[in-house]
Design brief:
The complex is a heterodimer of chains A (349) and B (251).
Chain A: E1 25-28, H1 32-50, H2 57-82, H3 91-107, H4 112-134, H5 139-157, E2 169-170, H6 179-206, H7 208-218, H8 220-225, H9 230-256, E3 258-259, H10 261-264, H11 268-280, H12 286-301, H13 308-323, H14 327-330, E4 344-347
Antiparallel strand pairs in A: 1-4, 2-3
Helix pairs in contact in A: 2-6, 2-9, 2-11, 2-12, 3-4, 3-5, 3-9, 4-9, 6-7, 6-9, 11-12
Chain B: E1 6-15, E2 18-28, E3 33-37, H1 44-52, E4 59-64, E5 67-68, H2 74-80, E6 82-85, H3 97-107, H4 113-127, H5 142-155, E7 160-164, H6 175-187, E8 191-195, H7 199-203, E9 208-213, E10 216-221, H8 223-228, H9 230-238
Helix pairs in contact in B: 3-4, 3-5, 4-5
Classes of the chains: A mainly alpha (349), B alpha/beta (251).
Chain lengths: 349, 251
């Protein structure tokens, strides 16, 4: 195996002393579990994609809720589990995404399915600008700061009469489409968004940027001293998470056809996202998907309990953090990996 | 005389009302091995933080390879060729040993793909950690954590390595191998700034020594001359805690 010499840097010499017997190094990034797991996921997505032909509208509307939960959990995990940023203000982007859809499709009259990604991109732009404010804070202060930003966004949005000010607005852009088709289209868009978001995070985490983010999460100072552009990487994650949450917000509004400032900007979303990620497993791609399914099933199964439902959810959260601190996916102890992002080294020849 | 690789001029740093560094100046030639001693709290680690960009000085300048890097952040200085190991190891605990080195090779060394993997692997071999490549860094014992600090610094292809008490906390038996690794580094032409309380290990490698106390340079020059300086002896012995042996042993 040929050795690759590091690129010469300026006039400097190869700094690492060549060591005797240094062969090549073989790096493996995925195992058989990933291929099996990936196959299962492809089949699951195919089945889900076929579902509108055989299921009721109610089921589809319900499942759109699940897909948005997967997106939200995945985005919060990207922020906290990979970027080391605990945000409790992601509802800013959920709300902006939802309102963006209403504004672009309702007020401006754009195609609603084009408006969804446009609204999400707008979230990314606003997030990029606000990151310069939010990044002056760190740790707990950052978390509170994101919440403040979300409240400011909500207060600004309810000043806008075109989107119903304080009372919210209805999404009328779909009125020309037969409800049966509309629901199926929104379902497919939501499924597509969930698949794209999860795949995007997977590819991001497999890339150089993923390596940088994991290092930043573990030890930001050492990451900087190892050449990782810490602030740039965090800003990228902050913007991407806003785009993802904006997509989820737009999908939620496309599903319910109504946007209300009190609910779409609710801090409950952040609590939900944290629950999903903590239950499923922080810092894994599989975790938020499992967490979202668990949360969705709990929501569904415990709907009759009224307010006691929150108590049950709280008890489950406490139990999981105590008994399985790395979440449900953590119980696999790394033996199973559907989305492998790490590097395993085998000795070369 | 060749142009200095690192030039620290008039650097000062205060934390609130406490002056940690006061008008510190020194310079290092390419490939030079430079030692720093001084009692606890003398500002040694702070000085390294100012040199590698973790902290901004309140005054003075840091020049590396002719360029003023006083305002540059740690990542930029690392990419320019300053590697750093921390006194209290700071591993990326959730990553494997190999991934730790790969981060440094990818971002500090600027390598991609195969070249990055090779650079990371070479750094691990040099630091004696190649067999632990797949071990989670968070589960390493102290000696291996120190080695990982070194490996990560090496993987960035540095021209200057800042070592902060790399031998501190190790047993007598563990020190020589690590000293030998540092010596190899110097032989390969890498400049080293080394803070160490294990003075005999330090003197075996460095060609110049600086003694820092209360943030000021007390003496700088030939290691033996500096250690024989009555002022240095007084300051250093006066604050010696159990286990720190300032007596120079012939090696």
């Amino acid at each position: 195996m040929t050795r690759v010499e590091p690129a010469a840097r300026g006039a400097g010499q190869d700094a690492v002393p060549p060591s005797a017997g240094s062969g090549g190094v073989r790096v493996r990034r995925s195992g058989p579990a990933a291929w099996i797991g990936g196959g299962v996921l492809v089949v699951a997505v195919a089945v889900l994609a076929y579902l509108p032909y055989v299921s009721s509208r109610g089921t589809q509307i319900d499942l759109v809720g699940l897909f948005s939960l997967i997106v939200l959990g995945t985005m919060w995990n990207l922020l906290a589990g990979y970027g080391g940023m605990v945000s409790i203000g992601q509802q800013a982007w959920i709300g902006l995404g939802g309102y963006g859809l209403v504004y672009l499709a309702g007020t401006l009259g754009l195609d609603p399915f084009v408006s969804i990604p446009l609204a999400a991109l707008a979230c990314g732009l606003v997030a990029w600008a606000t990151s310069y404010l939010a990044f002056r804070l760190s740790g707990g202060y950052f978390a509170i700061g994101t919440w403040v930003i979300a409240e400011v966004v909500r207060l600004l949005v309810i000043q806008v009469d075109e989107v119903g000010a304080g009372s919210g607005a209805s999404l009328t852009a779909f009125s020309g489409i037969d409800p049966q088709y509309r629901i199926a289209y929104v379902y497919w868009v939501a499924l597509g968004v969930a698949v794209v978001v999860v795949l995007a995070v997977y590819l991001l985490m497999r890339s150089r940027i993923g390596l940088a983010l994991t290092a930043i999460r573990d030890e930001p100072t050492a990451a900087g001293s190892s050449g990782v552009p810490v602030t740039r990487a965090k800003r990228l994650v902050f913007v991407l998470a806003a785009v993802g949450c904006g997509l989820a917000g737009a999908v939620i509004v496309a599903n319910t056809l109504r946007v209300q400032p009190g609910s779409i900007f609710s801090v409950d979303y952040s609590a939900t996202m944290i629950f999903i990620v903590v239950i499923g497993g922080l810092g894994t791609i599989e975790g938020p998907i499992i967490g979202a399914v668990v949360y969705y099933l709990l929501q569904d199964g415990l709907a009759d309990l009224g307010n006691w439902y929150l108590v049950v959810v709280g008890v489950i959260a406490i139990a999981v953090t105590l008994l399985a601190p790395k979440g449900l996916w953590g119980l696999t102890r790394g033996r199973l990996s559907v989305f492998p992002t790490g590097y395993r080294v085998g000795r070369g020849t | 005389m060749t142009a200095p690789l690192l030039e620290v001029a008039g650097v000062g740093k205060r934390f609130g009302r406490l002056t940690v560094l006061d008008d510190v100046s020194f310079s290092i030639a390419p490939g030079e091995a430079f030692g720093i001693v001084g009692p606890n709290g003398a500002g040694k680690s702070t000085l390294l933080n100012v040199v590698n960009g973790v902290l901004r000085p309140d005054g003075g300048t840091v020049r590396f390879d002719g360029a003023d890097v006083t305002r540059a952040d740690a990542a930029a200085r690392c990419r320019a060729g300053i590697g750093r190991s921390y006194q209290i190891p700071r591993p990326f605990g959730g990553m494997t040993v190999f991934e730790n080195a790969l981060v440094a090779a990818s971002f500090g060394g600027g390598h991609t793909g195969r070249a990055a993997a090779e650079a990371a692997h070479r750094a691990l071999e040099t630091a004696g950690l190649a067999d632990a490549a797949n071990t989670p860094a968070g589960s390493l014992r102290l000696l291996d954590r120190k080695r990982l600090e070194l490996a990560r610094a090496l993987a960035t292809d540095p021209r200057l390595v800042l070592l902060d008490e790399i031998a501190g906390g190790l047993t007598e038996a563990e020190v020589p191998a690590l000293v030998e690794t540092v010596r190899d580094l110097v032989r390969a032409g890498v400049a080293v700034v080394w803070i160490e309380h294990v003075v005999h290990a330090l003197v075996a490698v460095v060609t110049r020594l600086m003694c820092l106390t209360y943030g000021r340079v007390l003496a700088v020059g030939d290691p033996h001359a500096v250690l024989a300086d009555p002022q240095v002896v007084e300051v250093y012995l006066g604050s010696t805690i159990a286990g720190d042996d300032p007596v120079v042993e012939e090696t």
